[in-house]
Amino acid sequence: MILFVAGCEKYSRQARENLARLCEEELKGNYSVDVVDVLEDFHAATQHNVMLTPTLIVVEPPPRTTILGDLCDTSRLRAALGLD
Amino acid sequence: MAGNSPTDGQLKQRLEDLEAIIEALRGGRIDAIVGKDGVALLRLAEVERQLRESEARYRLMFNRNPDGVFAVDPAGRFLEANPACEAIFGYALDELQQKTFLDICAPDQVSDTVAAFERGLRERRYSQFETASVHKDGRRVEVWIAGEPIVSDGRVSSIQCTARDITGRKQVERALQHLNATLEQQVAARTALAEQRAHDLRRLAAELSRAEHNERKRLANLLHDQLQQLLMAVRLQLPVLAEVDPPERERHLAKLDGLLVECLTVSRNLTQELSPPILQMGTLPETIRWLGAWFRERHGLNVTVESENGLPETPEHLRIFLFHAARELLFNVIKHSGRLEARVELAGTGGWLTLQVEDQGANFDAQAVEALVERPEGFGVFNIRERLKALGGRLEIEATPRRGACFRLVIPLRKTSRRTLSRTQPRSPK
């Protein structure tokens, strides 16, 4: 997973917290997340066609899924992570 | 070319991505946009929250402000107004919104108010001025206005104003101005009075000195012309006594005795003129009656004295003053009235003691009387007037019913009582 955030802005911070909570509860450490701060490296975002933050790109399990926003919609996140 | 075209799957994916972006933007739970040149942070929610708080603070200040707060467009039409405006101008918001500020402006303030508004629009900066409006109930309200144009896209969209009712302050200011003006007038009047009094006092001192000198000269003449002549005659007769025979001596002794009796008479008259014994012993009516008799005997002036019964006892200093004043006025009758008739009246009514001297002379001549007042001789009418002022009294001068002059000396009395007027004839001086 790649999570694109903008520093410690409000929704970026919430997205990180929501993702970490679900992953710890459901995946028990069996996961990998790259957090990219666009304020430090915005080229990585453009390479992945990321236009907004926060954005989560789920590579595994396929298909590749993109979720925008603070990841407060748990059901959608669970679906993207193949937990349903 | 066909190899570079996106596949249906890719197009579908891009479409889904765009929909997701639009949805995210609408949902508002994003905080940055990433472009090819960098990152733009979005803090719309925060900005909205700050705006809401700012709006709430503004509304609180707007509605609770004790001053009137209102906005007008560049033409002066009311756009909004807080509740305090209704108290100041008398109109509710919906009524104000049908008016311009000039509609409620006092007619005499319209031109100045227009000029102030135009200046504010032209200079586009904070300004303040005072004007007056007409309240809905018709009364005039003095107001202080502060305004600042709100410029949007290079144009003045409205003018935000504060209004304060300063009617009370203006009234106080006007009262203070009136008070200051009155005070200045009073100070000027008092200063002029003080200067006049100082001038009068200087003149009084000079005239008293001159009067004393004249009196000394008169006494010296009296001594030289009468007493010294008589004593010289006695001295010339004395050597003759040793030379003549006894029968002649008897005749000379009788002549000398006659001269010495004449000396005593002159001396006694002089004493009475200087300080009549009646002044120490008599009441005021007795003193004035004695004076009347003295004038009749010595100068042939027929003086009628009228006095109320039971006049209060008069202090010695006042008695002496009234005696000399009456004597001065009676001498004036002899000199100026043309007739040897005078009338002196003493009365004590309404808390005032009056001594009135009037003559039976020719027509009253105001100019001659004025000249008499200003004449710096003898005891003088001027001195009488000044002494009366010092005693809290006054001198009144007017024509008598017989068209002569009447001088009335009025002095305040501590005690008053009801008295009747009696007519008496003066007795002979002793």
Walk me through what this model shows:
The complex is a heterodimer of chains A (84) and B (430). With 84 residues, chain A is an alpha+beta fold. In chain A, 37% of the residues lie in helices and 21% in strands. Chain A has a four-stranded mixed β-sheet. The two termini of chain A are 18 Å apart. In chain A, 35% of the residues are buried. The mean pLDDT of chain A is 90. Chain B is of the alpha+beta class and 430 residues long. Chain B has twelve helices and 13 strands. In chain B, the strands form three sheets. Chain B has a six-stranded mixed β-sheet with strand order 11-12-10-9-8-13. Chain B has a five-stranded antiparallel β-sheet with strand order 4-3-7-6-5, with helices on both faces. Chain B has a two-stranded antiparallel sheet with strand order 1-2. In chain B, helix 6 (167-243) runs antiparallel to helix 7 and helix 9 runs parallel beside helix 10 (316-337). The longest helix of chain B has 77 residues, at 167-243. The radius of gyration of chain B is 52 Å and the shape is rod-shaped. At the A-B interface, helix 1, helix 2, strand 3 and strand 5 of A face helix 1 and strand 1 of B. Strand 3 (52-53) of chain A pairs antiparallel with strand 1 of chain B.
Topology (SSEs and partners):
The complex is a heterodimer of chains A (84) and B (430).
Chain A (H helix, E strand, L loop, with lengths): L1 E4 L4 H18 L6 E4 L4 H6 L4 E2 L1 E4 L6 E4 L5 H7 L4
Parallel strand pairs in A: 1-2
Antiparallel strand pairs in A: 1-4, 4-5
Chain B lengths: L7 H20 L4 E3 L4 E3 L2 H21 L3 E5 L5 E4 L1 H7 L3 H4 L13 H14 L3 E8 L5 E13 L2 E11 L1 H77 L2 H29 L3 H4 L2 H16 L2 E7 L7 H22 L3 E9 L2 E8 L6 H9 L6 H10 L3 E6 L5 E8 L8 E4 L6
Parallel strand pairs in B: 8-9
Antiparallel strand pairs in B: 1-2, 3-4, 3-7, 5-6, 6-7, 8-13, 9-10, 10-12, 11-12
Helix pairs in contact in B: 6-7, 9-10
